[in-house]
Automatic annotation (TrEMBL):
Residues that span the membrane, as ranges: 7-27, 33-54, 66-85, 105-123, 132-149, 155-173
Keywords: Membrane, Transmembrane, Transmembrane helix
Sequence segments annotated as region (Disordered): 193-227
Species whose genome carries this gene: Peloplasma aerotolerans
Segments of skewed composition (Basic and acidic residues): 195-227
Full protein name: DUF308 domain-containing protein
Amino acid sequence: MSKAKYGYGWVLKWVLAALLLGVGFFMFFSPDFVYTITGVTILIFSVFRIYPLLKSLHKEVLRTINLVEIIFDTLIGILLVYIGITKGSTLTDEPIWSTVYQYSLAFFFYARGLVFFNSIAFFEEKTEVPKFWAHIVILSMGAIIAVLPDFGYESVALFFLIISLVGAAYLGYDGFGGYSKYREYSASINAGKQVGKDKEADKGINIDKEAPKKRIEDPEEKRPYVN
């Protein structure tokens, strides 16, 4: 049995694409799920940054500022997850939760931009041009979310839906490429087997042609001749 050159990763990518689409559309019509996913996203962004960020910062004051930001972000994430799980049926009936959601996101984005620009302006942290412009967008998003009169979970649900569609399209296309290579490899294996069979058949024919034919003697020829 020959070792497979291509695996079955394309299956996982297609399954993930389908799940991503389902989650995106479900979130678009479910406010409690939007709150929960937003909180989980903020928690992942906060918790996974702690060790690499604090280890790479060389000034104690920067470590303290970023740690305080991470603590507040973690509390915001926990709050949104709690609201999504416990207040799911009353989210649309109680406007207070929409206000909490709005200002939580505004604080999250604005604090991230503020900490970043304080780090490079007052504490001489170096940065890259794309990162600089990305934080300008983040800071602007925080200010815009805070002053928008009709901001609600619907805007974030639409954003998540767009991300889901883009991610599903990417995974689907990537899976299609993997499946195409897998089929090409399978076809080459089958073609190789067929070529091997044809060669063996041709070899057998050539052996039959080259082998000398045995002369069949007539039994009469072996009888002694008597005059």
